[in-house]
Amino acid sequence: MKKYNQSLIKDQNKKQVYQLIEDMPGISRAQIAELMKVSKTTVSALADELMQEGFIIDEGAAASNRQGRKPNSLIVNSRGNYVIVLNWHKDNLEIAVVDSAMNVSLCKTYTMKNKGDALTELTSYYEEFKEAQCVYGNIMGVCLIVPGMVDEKNDRLISVVLPNENQENYRISRIRSLLHGNPLAILNDTACFAYAETAFGQLESENYIYINVNDGVGAALIHDGQLLGGASGITTQFGHFSVDRHGLACSCGNRGCLENQIGELALPRLFEEFGIKIPKKEKLLFKDLAALVEEGHEEAIKLMEVMAEDFSYALCNAISLFHPETVIIGGIGRKLGEAFLDVLKRNMGEMGFRQFTEDVKIEYTRHGEGSVLRGAAKYYINKYYRFHDMDQGQLFCG
Question: What is the pTM of this model?
Answer without folding.
Answer: 0.89
